[in-house]
Write a structure and sequence with these properties.
The chain is α+β, with helices and mostly antiparallel strands. It has helices at 3-10, 30-34, 59-69, 102-112, 119-126, 130-139, 143-156, 183-192, 199-206, 265-281; strands at residues 41-42, 53-54, 72-80, 87-90, 224-231, 237-247, 250-260. The radius of gyration is 19 Å and the shape is globular.
Length: 293
């Protein structure tokens, strides 16, 4: 079926590569959308049931090609800041938060005490320091109180599902890092993070990640992001990041993850670099947004 006939069948407003809505966003690039003349596959999965067409030369198609050449599981979710619609790609959807949970933890701790915005909070985010993060957790009170404080930040950010365990499920890892955090809920939280009270303090920290951790989203000069990684009980690594990147029309929230069959951290890191490259190549297809006034 030709693109023009498909547009007519679906309606002009429904036909889009990424149907992302926000308070302020860019339309899909008309020239880019008009180039392909055939549809190779129709595929979509999104909690909002957005329309996503896999067309040659698009982000969806490029992601399919990457996944086809990858040995393991990949996941990517994008959503405009201030928006309501997300688009997801890949076959990985949820797993331990690892150090990405240090973002809502730090925000909860900064709200509890301004002193947490100093060295302890900064080190927990910029260097992903576990000792500093543990100190932030303890500053929130007992284990139950701390877990509820972090969950409260998640709820405020639109995540209605993620539960933060008060106690360690694996003795060698933090309890908050073992929280199951899906890409969908994480990108939803990221899309609202800039709009939350006192979040600017934590976002500034997320923009100052140390050089050795600046892979994946860190390849974007102005990105505000946080990574997390760790092994499962068999030693295989999950590597994930989430954060915000800039576009001409505002910011985009991104969450992605890789779980390589090799179990190697380096392979997971390489996969995040490749997904970041895809985003760079297809930024014109993605609608940015901003917080409501």
């Amino acid at each position: 079926m030709s693109i023009s006939r498909l547009r007519k069948a679906l309606g002009g407003s429904a036909f889009a590569l990424l149907l992302l809505t926000s308070c302020a966003q860019n339309p899909v690039n008309d020239a880019a959308a008009a180039e392909p003349t055939t549809i190779t596959q129709a595929a979509a999965r999104s909690e909002q049931q957005n329309l996503q067409l896999t067309l040659p030369g698009t982000l969806a198609h490029s992601f399919q090609q990457l996944q086809g050449s990858w040995r393991g599981h990949l996941g990517l979710a994008v959503m405009p800041v201030g928006g309501t619609k997300m688009v997801t790609f890949g076959d990985w959807s949820t797993g331990p938060a690892w150090s990405t949970m240090k973002v809502p933890l730090t925000l909860a701790a900064v709200r509890r005490s301004a002193t947490n915005a100093g060295y302890t909070g900064t080190t927990a985010i910029t260097q992903s320091d576990n000792t500093a993060a543990d100190a932030l957790w303890q500053s929130l009170g007992g284990a139950q109180e701390a877990a509820k404080a972090v969950e409260a930040v998640l709820r405020e950010g639109g995540d209605t599902k993620t539960m933060v365990p008060p106690t360690r499920t694996r003795a060698e890892h933090s309890s908050f890092g073992q929280a199951e955090w899906s890409l969908a809920e994480q990108v939803r939280f990221a899309s609202k993070l800039p709009c939350l009270p006192q979040a600017s303090t934590v976002l500034t920290m997320m923009g100052q990640i140390i050089p050795t951790h600046r892979w994946g989203l860190g390849t974007f000069t102005s990105a505000e992001f946080k990574g997390g990684w760790g092994p499962d009980t068999s030693g295989g690594y999950l590597v994930r990041q989430f954060g915000l990147i800039d576009t001409a029309g505002g910011q985009i929230a991104v969450a992605f993850a890789a779980q390589p069959d090799s179990g190697s951290f380096n392979d997971g890191m390489t996969a995040l670099d490749k997904m970041a490259t895809l985003l760079t190549q297809h930024l014109d297809e993605l609608a940015g947004g901003k917080c409501a006034a």
